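Q: Given only this backbone (232 positions), what sequence would you predict?
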């Protein structure tokens, strides 16, 4: 009789605790964007490592699939995915919700050598060929000025291509995250990448797909990033 009571108590405890202990698996998309993310990087990149560590405290398993950026954003809208990461807030498109910051990124102007630039961005774009990443959505100020000076824009598919354009003189300046440019410069055996002007510091967020689960996902992410108890 005593044994039966103990078994019933154990079953009751497991029934109450199991929803908290039962792990979830979140599948997301990402891009090769070293040192922040990449399939060939230790822990799949610095930013993904931060996100994964935060979610592990909430018993969430993170599964990451890597694609070119435009495809990553499209693929993340499919039913089996939770969203895409890392993204600047401007990269969170319709149908997605931005999480709180997971990591931070800078946007800067880079050149082959140290040079003096005009103080205002409009003059910089007006007097130089500027390399941008084709499939990125930059902060609004940059986007507006780039549209005004379309003839001076040289687009690249990614930073690996942009760094080679810059070194070969295809563009005078490049605008993106300087850590990413330096990462790919080193990977290509190139050294002459100089940051001549920092434009902004931007949060890197998780773009959560809007669905019946999105509020749950956002709630868990907020708790995980704030290091709060994650009982659900």
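A: Predicted residues:
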């Amino acid at each position: 009789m005593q044994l039966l009571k103990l078994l019933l108590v154990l079953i009751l405890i497991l029934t109450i605790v199991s929803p908290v202990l039962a792990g979830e698996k979140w599948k997301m998309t990402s891009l090769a964007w070293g040192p922040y993310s990449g399939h060939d990087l230790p822990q799949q990149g610095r930013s993904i490592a931060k996100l994964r560590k935060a979610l592990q405290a909430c018993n969430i398993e993170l599964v990451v699939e890597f694609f070119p950026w435009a495809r990553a954003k499209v693929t993340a809208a499919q039913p089996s995915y939770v969203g895409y990461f890392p993204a600047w807030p401007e990269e969170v498109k319709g149908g997605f919700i931005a999480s709180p910051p997971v990591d931070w990124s800078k946007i800067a102007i880079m050149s082959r050598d140290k040079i003096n630039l005009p103080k205002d961005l409009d003059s910089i774009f007006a007097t130089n060929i500027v390399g941008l990443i084709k499939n990125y959505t930059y902060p609004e100020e940059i986007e507006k000025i780039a549209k005004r000076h379309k003839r001076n824009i040289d687009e690249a598919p990614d930073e690996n291509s942009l760094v080679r354009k810059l070194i070969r003189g295809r563009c005078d300046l490049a605008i993106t995250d300087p850590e990413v440019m330096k990462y790919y410069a080193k990977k290509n055996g190139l050294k002459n990448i100089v940051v001549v002007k920092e434009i902004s510091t931007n949060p890197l967020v998780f773009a959560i797909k809007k669905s019946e689960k999105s509020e749950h996902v956002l709630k868990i992410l907020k708790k995980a990033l704030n290091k709060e108890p994650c009982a659900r």
